[in-house]
Amino acid sequence: MARKKIIAGNWKMNMTPTEAVELINTLKPLVATDDADVVFCVPAIDIIPAMEAAKGSNIQIGAENMYFEEKGAYTGEISPAMLTDAGVKYVVLGHSERREYFAETNETVNKKMLKAFEHGITPIMCCGETLAQREQGVTMDFIRQQVKVGFLGVTAQQAATAVIAYEPIWAIGTGKTATTEQAQEVCKGIRACIAEIYDQATADAIRIQYGGSVNAATAPELFAQPDIDGGLVGGAALKPDFGKIVNWK
After folding, report:
1. pLDDT of residue 170
2. Which label site among 38, 69, 146, 171 has the fewest CB atoms less than 10 Å from its CB?
């Protein structure tokens, strides 16, 4: 059974609530499709208005981060129960910007993964290497560690529903894109790693995205690869061109 593509926009720290509603209203007719799951991962303050704006459309609203505790003295954090109560179905975990700027580790990402599954939220777990790591030939060693620690304690049944986003750090926001061959090679390696941890059926079920300066021009070739099940899209998700990425065929 073919895996359904999942194309998610990661808005990062962009769009006020007013702008979010305007963008969703603009994009709704442009991303209408039954061929792919369409997710907008938006800043926390945009979640409620985005959810309202997306009603009646095929757009699902996701969060960009989540804490691994249920509640408590964690000023500035958002709990999984807050997300589920708002109707959130997806959450981005372990994005390279969170790892770089906010001291996220494989271990904290793992805690968040477990908590997301506990609350019925689908994690989009990010992994990816720096340019130095690619040049040193340790890309897969590094990514396998991110995946293995990230999925520690996750059951095969849970893992099969997860999403992994491969984002080479050197291609995020730089305009550089991994070649189709590079992206496919790593996504294939991630699937093989999941097969090692669990089994081939789980590996065949899990969806693996490519992210890193994905745009309307690069999407068709990338998404046609056997192990690339869509994209985690940054800047291009804030423009009408996102409709072309979603309808890439």
Report:
1. 87
2. 69
Question: What is the separation, in whole angstroms, between the first and last Cα of the chain?
Answer: 19
Single-letter amino acid, residue 148: K
Which of 236, 133, 226, 136 is closest to 177 using CA atoms? Answer: 236
**And the tokens for 47?**
């979640």
181-229 pLDDT tens trace: 999 999 999 999 999 999 999 999 999 999 988 999 999 999 999 999 9
Q: How far is CA 90 from CA 6, 25, 69, 188, 230, in A?
A: 11, 20, 17, 23, 15
Active-site annotation, residues: 95, 167
Beta bridge partners of 233: 9
Residue 54's identity, in one-letter code, is: A
